[in-house]
Amino acid sequence: xxxxxxxxxxxxxxxxxxxxxxxxxxxxxxxxxxxxxxxxxxxxxxxxxxxxxxxxxxxxxxxxxxxxxxxxxxxxxxxxxxxxxxxxxxxxxxxxxxxxxxxxxxxxxxxxxxxxxxxxxxxxxxxxxxxxxxxxxxxxxxxxxxxxxxxxxxxxxxxxxxxxxxxxxxxxxxxxxxxxxxxxxxxxxxxxxxxxxxxxxxxxxxxxxxxxxxxxxxxxxxxxxxxxxxxxxxxxxxxxxxxxxxxxxxxxxxxxxxxxxxxxxxxxxxxxxxxxxxxxxxxxxxxxxxxxxxxxxxxxxxxxxxxxxxxxxxxxxxxxxxxxxxxxxxxxxxxxxxxxxxxxxxxxxxxxxxxxxxxxxxxxxxxxxxxxxxxxxxxxxxxxxxxxxxxxxxxxxxxxxxxxxxxxxxxxxxxxxxxxxxxxxxxxxxxxxxxxxxxxxxxxxxxxxxxxxxxxxxxxxxx
Length: 463
Fold this sequence. Notes:
The chain is an alpha+beta fold. It has 11 helices and 28 strands.
């Protein structure tokens, strides 16, 4: 541990915060593609601002068609640092402005402060510290900043069509101590068309809009029944589900709004799914025919509070990567068709199974079929004996005094399809940074510690 690195980073704390502020204050949620902007204006603006910051730090960035940005430190790079500048939508419940960096002591609030703009800035300052103290490395380091990670990592598909992977790859987009296993993923959409008949009818349903987030809100419009009648059922279902239901009489019928708690699909048990709660309520109402059947089937296969896929015949677990998780993240109904989307995070065991077929069979029993031909993405695993793994764990133990160990996660990072790639940080154990939720925050001192640890890893492997 070289104290000079720490002293350098502490001396740059104000500049670090300033650079982070510049990135956080850009709304880089993906929007409709525009010419030269594959992820919309926000993603392109974030890359442009990051390029300006890199230039100010004396690096020479290369923009890959507004998919990603690259900057090399030293020659003949063998190590790659991958972070992203796009963010998920802000959602509801913020007490701060999500696109303004709000400092309270050393706590910085704002969308992306941890996931993943703060991490990107930490990587940059790690390189700055090494350059200031040791000069250029023997083998270079390449910093790559993407703009489409949150919506499927198409940015890296494009980037790696132009550039090769390197010997060592690190991404500060997960948890400490270290992630060497990322579960597989299967995220299909499926649908069912129904005859919507009966005196009490479901007119419409609007649930979540993205599969990888537990929906915190959902709404349904029902005709042929009074709010008072719905209320008696809603009170019972609210006790069962812990969700809040708000009823409103309208000219078109009773509008039912459900409120739950959002969470990432990699840890759906941390949320309270407003969508499945509302399905439970609708299934208990006096609807009729195929619409009623479809709702009851959904309530059976995706029962509120169940996140292990048991009722979908998908309960799986292995000792290396853990259990399968299932998030029922999307549903809409337009009066005749249900459109649904789930997000399954699958243990290594699933790689040898026909997850797609098993799930299709269960859906078929309920009258649902896949939309298109969804793909199953296998798990990612890097041996604990990897030089990069051992180096990162040793550095983590040295700097934190805590035990370094490999972890498996349900989330996917940029390294998922890169041989030998691992996620190192950025979340420290025991803290909830409210990633993908309201009032996301980062601890500036922890971001500087991340920069210090990344510098130590790079020093050991590249100098």
